Automatic annotation (TrEMBL):
<dbReference type="InterPro" id="IPR036641">
    <property type="entry name" value="HPT_dom_sf"/>
</dbReference>
<dbReference type="GO" id="GO:0005737">
    <property type="term" value="C:cytoplasm"/>
</dbReference>
<dbReference type="InterPro" id="IPR045871">
    <property type="entry name" value="AHP1-5/YPD1"/>
</dbReference>
<dbReference type="GO" id="GO:0009927">
    <property type="term" value="F:histidine phosphotransfer kinase activity"/>
</dbReference>
<protein>
    <recommendedName>
        <fullName>HPt domain-containing protein</fullName>
    </recommendedName>
</protein>
<feature type="domain" description="HPt">
    <location>
        <begin position="55"/>
        <end position="161"/>
    </location>
</feature>
<dbReference type="GO" id="GO:0043424">
    <property type="term" value="F:protein histidine kinase binding"/>
</dbReference>
<feature type="modified residue" description="Phosphohistidine">
    <location>
        <position position="94"/>
    </location>
</feature>
<keyword id="KW-0597">Phosphoprotein</keyword>
<dbReference type="Pfam" id="PF01627">
    <property type="entry name" value="Hpt"/>
</dbReference>
<dbReference type="InterPro" id="IPR008207">
    <property type="entry name" value="Sig_transdc_His_kin_Hpt_dom"/>
</dbReference>
<feature type="region of interest" description="Disordered">
    <location>
        <begin position="1"/>
        <end position="31"/>
    </location>
</feature>
<dbReference type="GO" id="GO:0000160">
    <property type="term" value="P:phosphorelay signal transduction system"/>
</dbReference>
<dbReference type="GO" id="GO:0005634">
    <property type="term" value="C:nucleus"/>
</dbReference>
Length: 171
């Protein structure tokens, strides 16, 4: 079970809970590039706090809904990439950015923001202008590919979490 503080640690912490049982926190660095899942647990804990029961039915519904939404959005993004429709790609990036941020999925949110910006013919940061649509499309394809990898890690983490919500889950 994650702690209730709101800071994000850069290393896993070990703590002792009532009864002397040890566990490691679920917090991971936001800038992790080592294949671990990057979740802002302060944000995700806010969703967990809305659960009324031990089976986490409320949060499970939100997470499963996000996973369905993400899968459908990825397919739509692939379709619009083939059509070279930057406007729709930007819109889909914006759409998925909000729901991923709600769950604390920082890397997924960041990739969505890149796609949103590239679809508006801006650089990934949203500051500079991109004149060549093919450059934007290539950037979107790259961001989408990376986002799908991160989504797979997040999905696997959540499946493990909801299969055993009181267990030790290492993202």
């Amino acid at each position: 079970m994650p702690s209730k503080d709101t800071d994000i640690t850069t290393a896993k912490e070990t703590a002792t809970v009532e009864g002397g049982e040890s566990y490691q926190s679920q917090r991971v660095p936001l800038d992790s590039n080592d294949g671990t899942v990057t979740i802002d647990f302060a944000t995700f804990e806010q969703i967990l706090e809305m659960d009324d029961d031990e089976d986490h039915e409320f949060s499970r519904t939100i997470v499963w809904g996000f996973m369905d939404q993400a899968t459908e959005t990825f397919q739509s993004m692939s379709d619009y990439l083939k059509k070279k429709d930057l406007k729709e790609l930007s819109s889909l990036g914006h759409f998925l950015k909000g729901s991923s941020a709600t769950l604390g999925l920082t890397k997924v949110k960041d990739y969505c923001e890149k796609i949103q910006n590239l679809g508006l013919s801006r650089d990934e940061t949203g500051v500079g202008r991109i004149e060549d649509p093919e450059v934007s499309l290539a950037g979107i394809k790259s961001a989408l590919d990376e986002m799908k990898k991160e989504y797979t890690r997040v999905r696997d983490y959540f499946i493990g979490y909801y299969d055993n919500p009181n267990g030790n889950h290492q993202p």
